[in-house]
Write a structure and sequence with these properties.
Elements lengths: L1 E3 L3 H7 L1 H16 L3 H23 L1 E4 L3 E5 L4 E5 L3 E4 L4 E5 L5 E5 L11 H19 L2
Antiparallel strand pairs: 1-2, 2-3, 3-4, 5-6, 6-7
Length: 137
């Protein structure tokens, strides 16, 4: 089993969307007037916490017979036999059991302008390892 993750700095940065939103929820909850408003803030806070944890854990796990892509919102499990390729985005191209072409993005490995060379190299290395896994059938 091969686990492909962004650098630790990226993983921590991936949590900021959830954490920043959580701070807004806390501020709203403190200033809320009614119990319903406070309850809504608590529900939103739980969602923000989930987003922060998923951002930290985002990545890809290449197993013998399946690929597990863990994103910010969902986790997709793709049978190895269904994988048809890996794009430059990067995204995994695969075919559903009904024969439909699918596309699952791996957003945590997409390169951005302004990244450090080390972060970019890690993302490219992870994408290359994912391609090698997909090519071995």
């Amino acid at each position: 089993m091969d686990v492909l993750l962004p650098t630790l700095a990226n993983r921590v940065a991936n949590t900021t969307l959830g954490l920043a939103s959580a701070l807004g929820c806390v501020q709203y909850g403190v200033e809320a007037g009614t119990g319903w408003q406070r309850a809504a803030a608590m529900v939103a806070l739980l969602g923000c916490g989930t987003l922060a944890v998923r951002g930290y854990r985002a990545g890809v796990r290449c197993e013998a017979e399946r690929l597990v892509v863990r994103g910010y919102v969902w986790t997709r499990v793709i049978p190895r036999a269904a994988v048809t390729g890996v794009t430059d985005f990067p995204a995994v191209r695969w075919t559903s059991p009904r024969g439909r072409s699918r596309w699952t993005p791996v957003a945590v490995f997409s390169t951005l302008s302004g990244e450090t060379a080390g972060v970019r190299a890690r993302k490219r290395s992870n994408t290359a390892r994912l391609r090698r896994w997909a090519a071995r059938r």
